[in-house]
Model the fold of this input.
Amino acid sequence: MTSYKIDGNRQVIFSEDMKLIELIDADYHLLSVLLRLEIELPFGDISVKQMCLRYDMSPTLFLMICRIYSSTDYEPDYTSLTMDDALCLMKYLRASHRYYLNTLLPRISAGVDGVLQLCEERQRNVLGKFCRDYVDEVRAHLDYEEREMFPYIESLSSGKAECMMDEFMDNHTDICEKIDDMKSIIIKYLPESCSIAQRCDLLFDIFALREDLVRHTLLEMKILAPLIKQEERRTK
Done:
């Protein structure tokens, strides 16, 4: 029987004292957060605070990440976080990159290839190119962060401030819009010869990628970027 607290809007109140099992029971999607933070199961009856101490992570940052994944209207307050938290968040974002590149994108590409087998040549060419172009765009976006933004953050943590975060955010492309177009094509225009099961499996992966990318962007825009700009002002 669960013992976590609920607020007036029927939302679970995440806290340091709740058990980690209660956190997952409240929202099983948060298992993906634990996966990326490399938190090992089984974790028994430890609390969120105990888990964070074990893995050398700020409970405040961990709960912010969980709330972003669990609530569509949560607005994080980064002001209590530190540069150590920024580095921890960056590690989490890198793990998300690996999840996209090694799991979700290959699964979506394979799903697209499967449904294209039942399409006419023109449809195969159009949707196939659209998918390949989108995958290339996501790879380029993530590669830019890995090559440019993340190394800069690491150098900033060593005291080398160049005040470049605004520039990185200006070059931060929106990679969610085209996935909406892909979703619409699969729902509205693929021929009836594509089985509903095959089509739905592909759509589940596309929706999962889109939702995760939205959270990924929020973590960067609402926590990482303002935290780094605060550090830039401090060290300038």
